[in-house]
């Protein structure tokens, strides 16, 4: 009986003395912040829309199809109204007209 109590108390002490529980580990590694930092770093690799991937007929890179890059107030930037099913996406100082469904690049407005 004493042996069983000793084993139970040792097991409880070992569990309490574990270096980090799951909740504590999650506190030290904020997963959402980590993924945002990776996405932020990838998206800022595109400083403008002058690279070879930004040509009419190509698809816009996925990391730039996030809602934060979509231009809602195209009048403010003196852009033509996007046709139905298209939207302007800002890449640095440049703007790219993209088909919403496919990500196909239709037009570019450089240095706008």
Write structural notes for this entry.
Strand 2 (86-91) and strand 3 form a beta hairpin. This protein has one domain (18-109): Nuclear Transport Factor 2, Chain: A, CATH 3.10.450.160. With 112 residues, it is α+β, with helices and mostly antiparallel strands. It has three helices and four strands. A four-stranded antiparallel β-sheet has the order 1-2-3-4, with no helix packed on it.
Fold blueprint:
Elements: H1 2-16, H2 22-28, H3 31-43, E1 70-71, E2 86-91, E3 94-99, E4 105-109
Mean of the pLDDT scores? Answer: 78
Measured by DSSP, the beta-strand proportion falls in 15-25%
- CATH topology term: Nuclear Transport Factor 2, Chain: A
Gyration radius, to the nearest Å? 26 Å
Q: Span from first to last CA?
A: 82 Å
Q: Could you write a compact summary of the structure shown?
A:
31% of the residues lie in helices and 17% in strands.
Labels describing this entry:
rod-shaped, 112 residues, Nuclear Transport Factor 2, Chain: A, alpha+beta, 31% helix
């Amino acid at each position: 009986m004493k042996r069983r109590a000793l084993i139970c108390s040792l097991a409880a002490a070992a569990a309490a003395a574990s270096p980090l529980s799951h909740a504590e580990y999650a506190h030290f590694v904020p997963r959402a912040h980590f993924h945002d930092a990776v996405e932020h770093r990838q998206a800022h690799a595109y400083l403008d829309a002058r690279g070879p991937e930004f040509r009419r007929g190509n698809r816009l890179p996925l990391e730039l199809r996030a809602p934060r890059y979509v231009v809602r107030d195209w009048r403010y930037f003196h852009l033509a109204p996007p046709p139905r099913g298209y939207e302007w996406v800002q890449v640095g100082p440049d703007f790219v007209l993209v088909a919403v469904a496919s990500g196909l690049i239709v037009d570019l407005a450089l240095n706008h």
